[in-house]
User: What shape does this take?
Amino acid sequence: MAAIFVNDVVVGEGDGFVDIVVELTESSLQNVSVNYSTSNSTAVVSNGADATAVSGSLSFLAGETLKTVRVLLTDDGTAERFEHFRFNLSAPVNATLADASAMVSIVDNDTSAVLPGLFVRDVVVDEKAGTASFVVLLGGPEGQASTNVITVDYVTANDGAVAGSDYTAASGTLTFAPGETVKTVVVDITDDVTAEGIERFALNLDNAGNATIVDGQGIAVIAANDAAAVAVPRLSVADMVVGESDGYLDVVVSLSAPGTQVVTVNYTTYNSTAVISNSADATAVSGSLSFAVGETTKTVRMAITDDSTAERFEHFVFTLSGASNATLADASAMVSIVDDDTSAVLPGLFVRDVVVDEKAGTASFVVLLGGPEGQASTNVITVDYATANDGAVAGSDYTAASGTLTFAPGETVKTVVVDITDDVTAEGIERFALNLDNAGNATIVDGQGIAVIAANDAAAVAVPRLSVADMVVGESDGYLDVVVSLSAPGTQVVTVNYTTYNSTAVISNSADATAVSGSLSFAVGETTKTVRMAITDDSTAERFEHFVFTLSGASNATLADASAMVSIVDDDTSAVLPGLFVRDVVVDEKAGTASFVVLLVGRRGRQAPM
Assistant: This one.
């Protein structure tokens, strides 16, 4: 049976109208119908303030696969932030709903005397999608129109994916008429039968006329779908860190392999330290996704609210439930929002560490401007990055990467994705580094991130042992990734439940950290999972505190170390010159590593104001 879907779209306020495309995944031998309607969100359509509401029904005759619905846009004279409304499908006949709701985003077009900047957004697509659409914005998510004609050249470039076999090379010139703020470059991608991992290619902007190029490279991620289909694949959603000024994010929901049947799953979002129920920090979403046979990737678009309030590091939760023809491997993601309020102080650059399983395919380094709480700049910030061996070797364990990150005014988060190699060599834990250098209009505060690649090449065993290690974190770290490990790969899927408990640190009300609970699923061959937790950075002077992270209910494994003490070191400042302390450590020779904890002013952890 065919499935009906509608894609998210970004339009400019001055475009006059938007044609929303409703499609069938395949032609049907029967007539297909579906109802549609629009609903308010941060953009108001019920009274025509931002767009004109529509509702009705569409009929696809046998053999037809595409219909469009035109929605009129209101071009007012009010300076507005990034806004959106929803386009919803319901009551299908002779078809199912694959994606029943689209976010239609409106970029403002009010003019400014300042030369406008050009931004190109990244995109994630399934190999079966047929195309990858790069959104190019004039003035970023909030828009900045011009009274002049704006031109900019674009061209695709290989970045693992190869033009001609994985996608069709494209180049040309975009022209923004006065008042226009959004253009889209559509690139064809190839659904081949070659077994491939995740691949990427780039869209580069160059030679702008009457504008500056602020973020001139967009990356298209093509999800792998060439693995052998399985009867019951595993569903997962990954943690994400976004900037408050990003306008929107695409939450990626993935299958471990294509299914032999259609896979469906429900999704919803919940408040945590970030409030989404009233769109204060982001706009709540809920619905269902349907993966056709052969598909492995879906995205859910969410709007981020860019307010003028100075805020701490915040997060909300995106969860999956009710899976059909699949199991839930990782059903919950923490979506963290980094503030973008500016300061007269030169901002600092920080790169975070990352822990991944060798089978993960990639390691993603998060680079923050101003640390977890964020500090935006009115200037363009640039910084060079390059990977370096640290046990793991470029070319055999990971793919070397280098380049330059550019933070536009207001941006606070960038991510560097590095490919890692799942080889068959028996190896222990390996590491490589991402180093920052040569910053422009910023200082480098923490310029080295370490990627830890967990070992998974040992012989599989029927009943491996599960463990979670004690950790020490700083109150200002924003978040931590609790690492749950298997002693060796299992011969069957391993599952385990986890939860957290108060101790001297209180997590039940997010006073010191935010409580989590759920379950983890280790596929055959995997040995490492992480659970992201938010740490609360308050202004209270506190002693050394801790909470407890516990494992229970293991299936196809035993619990070797089922409880971890997570200690939080305070970060309140003092005028006294701080002292540095390094702690002793005892490890078994088979542990693979020894971790030394270095504290500033001992157990109280008082920071220096420099």
Remarks:
- DSSP finds no helices and 47 strands in the chain.
